[in-house]
Design a protein that fits this description.
flat, two-stranded antiparallel sheet, 2% strand, mainly alpha, single chain
């Protein structure tokens, strides 16, 4: 056994680890390969370090340039703000100038409104005079139209009388023609009936004679034939008696043939009788047709009487229709004329009310403008008192003007209703209902209580 002390004195080489690899146990070749690999990685790390240093320098350069641009932008912004302040000051000065111009324009507008109000008063007075003149003209036209209607009515009555006379003449002529045609039809039917009766009688007699002749001829032939047969039979029996009994059978045969001949002759006679009966049936049918024609003649007389009654009734209805048609035309003319007058009056009334409303709106706007101007100015109490007194005077004038217009409106409405009543037009047929002055909240009556200030409303 080896001594223990000697074994404890041996030391192990130190362990070297590079990149997680133990190099103490590598051979020389492996160490060389590992060294080359580590060297390559070192070169690669150096290249990357140089690249990142270049990138850092570029970023720093870009940051310096950006900071310089920021400083320039801030300086430009300060310049723009100063320019904006200067522009705002110039705009305020220009605004003050424009306000002064607007004040001058408002004053000119007020002066123009006063002149316009005076012109409107003059125009309203002229329109009222024109309305009076037009009303007189309408009354004159109405009288002329009434006279013209009377003349037309007289002319229509004369024309109606002439038409009645012409219609009566035409009706009498038509009645005469109709009666003549009826007589001709009756004569024709009677002649045809007589001719048919005669023809059938002659035909029947002829056929009966022919049948009788054929019957007599056949009877004579049968008698002669029977006589000859009887003679032959007699001779035959004599021969039988004389000769022999053997001929009896042959005679019987002949007798049977003769019996057949007799039966044929009787059959021919029966056929002749049946043919005579067949000829009797057409005669009976002709008699029945004759009775039917007589019945139709009786119905024809009754229909002719009914036709005459209906013709009279038609004439009466035509007269009534003509009268109603004439009355309808007269009423239509009156309605068109009255409707036209109604539309004209309505249009004038609407225009007058619209003008009044426009003037009132204009005055209200002017007052509001003046009130705003007063509030915008710091006037002395004395000036305010005088201005309020002046405005009170204007308000009184406006109230007087409104009362006058209201009175004119009521007068025009009363005249309109009186004219409609005079023409016989009910107020319900107008299609609208005029509104009269209405008191509102203790104030003076106000015109135009309809929607949007209208002076009429639907019924």
């Amino acid at each position: 056994m080896a001594p223990k002390g000697k074994g404890k004195g041996v030391k192990k080489p130190p362990v070297i680890i590079i990149d997680g690899v133990d190099t103490s146990e590598m051979t020389r070749e492996k160490l060389e390969q590992f060294t080359l690999k580590v060297k390559e990685e070192l070169d690669k790390e150096r290249e990357e370090r140089n690249y990142f240093q270049l990138e850092r320098d570029k970023i720093r350069t870009f940051w310096e340039i950006t900071r310089q641009q920021l400083e320039e932008a801030k300086a430009e912004l300060r310049n723009k703000e100063r320019a904006t302040e200067e522009t705002q000051e110039e705009n305020e000065a220009l605004l003050e100038t424009e306000k002064q111009k607007i004040k001058h324009l408002k004053y000119e507008q007020q002066a123009a409104a006063a002149a316009l109000r005076a012109e409107n008063l003059v125009a309203l007075k002229a329109a009222k005079e024109e309305h009076t003149e037009q009303e007189l003209e309408l009354l004159n036209d109405k009288r002329a139209l009434r006279q013209e209607i009377k003349e037309h009515m007289l002319a229509a009555q004369d024309e109606l009388r002439r038409a009645k006379l012409v219609h009566a003449e035409e009706l009498s002529k038509a009645r005469a023609v109709f009666e003549e045609k009826a007589r001709q039809i009756e004569d024709k039917a009677e002649r045809k009936l007589n001719e048919t009766k005669v023809e059938l009688t002659v035909k029947h007699r002829t056929e009966m004679a022919e049948v009788e002749e054929r019957k007599n001829k056949q009877l004579s032939e049968l008698i002669s034939h029977h006589e000859r047969a009887f003679a032959d039979l007699k001779n035959y029996y004599n021969d039988i008696t004389l000769n022999n009994l053997g001929l009896i059978s042959s005679l019987r045969t002949q007798m049977e043939s003769m019996q057949k001949v007799k039966e044929r002759a009787e059959k021919i006679a029966r056929d002749a009788v049946a043919e005579a009966k067949g000829l009797r049936e057409p005669l009976e049918a002709a008699i029945i047709d004759n009775k039917e024609l007589k019945r139709q003649m009786a119905n024809y007389d009754r229909d002719k009487a009914a036709l005459a009654a209906k013709t009279k009734q038609l004439a009466v209805l035509e007269k009534q229709f003509e009268v109603l048609k004439w009355e309808y035309e007269v009423l239509q003319v009156r309605f068109d004329r009255i409707q036209k007058e109604r539309n004209e009056l309505k249009a004038r009334f609407s225009r007058a009310v619209l003008e009044v409303q426009q003037r009132a709106s204009l005055k209200t706007a002017l007052l509001e403008t003046k009130l705003k101007n007063i509030e915008g100015r710091a006037t002395a109490p004395t000036e305010i008192h005088e201005l309020l007194k002046h405005k009170d005077t204007q308000i009184e004038d406006l109230r007087y003007e409104a009362a006058r217009l209201r009175k004119a409106h009521d007068d025009l409405l009363a005249t309109y209703e009186a004219k409609l009543a005079k023409l016989g037009v009910p107020a319900e047929e107008l299609g609208f209902k005029p509104l009269k002055a209405v008191a509102v909240a203790g104030l003076a009556p106000v015109i135009g209580q309809g929607p949007a200030g209208l002076v009429t409303r639907d019924p």
